[in-house]
Amino acid sequence: MHDRITRYCACMLLVLSPVAAAARDTVTLCYEAQDVKPWRTEKGGGLNFALLKMVEQRLDIQFDFQSIPWKRCLAQLKANAVDGAFAVSYKADRRELGEYPGGQEVDATKRMHTDTYVVLRRKGSQVAWDGKQFSHLDGAIGFQLGYSVGDVLRAQNLEVDEGSQRADELARKLIAGRLAAAALGGSDAAGLMRGPLGAQLEQLPIPIIEKPYFLILSHALVASKPQLAARIWSEVEQARNSPAYRKLAEAQGVHH
Fold first, then answer.
1. Helix (H, G, I), strand (E, B) or coil at 12
2. What is the signed CA dihedral for 170, 176, 182, 184, rounded to 10 degrees?
3. What is the mean predicted confidence (pLDDT) over 190-194?
4. How many CA atoms lie within 13 A of 155 on its CB side?
5. Among the CATH numbers 3.40.50.2000, 1.20.1260.10, 3.40.190.10, 3.50.30.40, which is that of 115-210?
């Protein structure tokens, strides 16, 4: 009798375990291996992670987060080696890397957040930006490797320097006189201005650009699980507009 019960239990485990395993989708997402506060930290903190954890709970799925250098993250996405990447601004040529919410008409309501790019100069420098063009730019303007603001700068036929991966590297090059100015994400710039290098820097008042940032999903995931992809993007919007997320964002000084 005991043996029959044991065999029955073993059979039931075999029957049930594939069902249990299939019930929860795991979605692998890569992100940039550095702190971009308040949005994310290399160790998985910040508002982007808070938002995605809400999406996980709402959909009962599991995100597997991978912290890797940005250019490699985008290459992994293009190769369908990961299911998605965040947080990615829109560029037309990035459509070959993965899928944005909304398809051909990118749906900004399903963004993770909005951020700006701003200009930093050395204290006392005459470099200026009027919202359309630079003046007194006596050298290269630096930006972080692979960042989309590079396209905006190159479109103005400016001398650019894309040799830095980190915001603090850019700031040190700027202070050392190796750059005339630096174009940084607004949150990165705010962090630098609050930090030990801030006393030697000035932030210009007019942003270069303001843009939404998205979770983009791999072509393979969208093709094989279109309903899951649509549900993820829909929940990003719902979670971002939720009172719980708004409270977290406002505590970080971020307003919709």
1. helix
2. 40
3. 90
4. 8
5. 3.40.190.10
Q: Which residue has the tokens 């019960």?
A: 5
Q: What pLDDT shows up at residue 148?
A: 82
Q: What is the pLDDT of residues 49-70, one digit of tens each?
A: 999 999 999 999 999 999 999 9
- Please name which of 88, 70, 77 lies closest in space to residue 236, comparing C-alpha atoms: 88
pLDDT at 14 over 80: no
**CATH for the stretch 2-113+213-251:** 3.40.190.10
**Alpha helix ranges (H) inside the chain:** 2-23, 47-59, 70-78, 149-154, 167-175, 186-194, 219-224, 226-240, 243-251
Look at residue 128 and tell me whether its pLDDT is greater than 90: yes
- Put simply, whether the predicted model's pTM sits higher than 0.85 gets the answer no
* Distances in whole angstroms, Cα of residue 31 to Cα of each of 42, 67, 87, 242: 8, 5, 7, 23
